[in-house]
Amino acid sequence: MWTMLAVGFALMATGAMAAVYQFGLPAWLPLPQTGHSEPDLKLTFPAARQERRPLNNQNDYFNISGTITNIGQNRRSVPSLMIVLRDARNRAVYTVEAAPPKPVLNPGENLTINTAIVDAPKAAVSAEVKWKVN
To answer: In whole angstroms, what is the distance from residue 21 CA to residue 65 CA?
Structure first.
């Protein structure tokens, strides 16, 4: 009897892992935040400005372009960014940290970010840009 229960549990656990692998974690699952917000700093990295581009040596790179804007009334320090490349199933396939080219933004100031990731996996089709969690 205990063997049957153990086998049943193992089959259910395997099925649950396969479902999470295939479809990802459910949205209702309460998980800790993977990123955090920065007061008065707005990230804008549209999907239309993310693309794979060829290099001269028959390799390619993943290009990400966007802006950081200080929408507040005070100067703000700009923390590092985490760039998460995702595949067609929205699974994370690569993560890299990017330091901002300017450490502080004045009120209303924009900072343009252009990043080329040369060693990006071929499966990467989109990027998520967020603040690095310390």
So the answer is: 29
Q: Which runs of consecutive H residues, i.e. helices, occur in the chain?
A: 2-23
Q: What is the pLDDT of residues 3-39, one digit of tens each?
A: 766 666 666 766 655 555 555 555 455 444 445 567 8
Strand spans (E) along the chain:
41-44, 50-54, 60-70, 76-77, 81-86, 92-98, 104-105, 110-117, 126-131
Side by side, the strands of the sheet bearing 81-86 are: 92-98, 81-86, 126-131
From residue 39, how far is each of 10, 11, 90 by CA, in Å?
Answer: 46, 46, 28
pTM recorded for the entire structure: 0.69
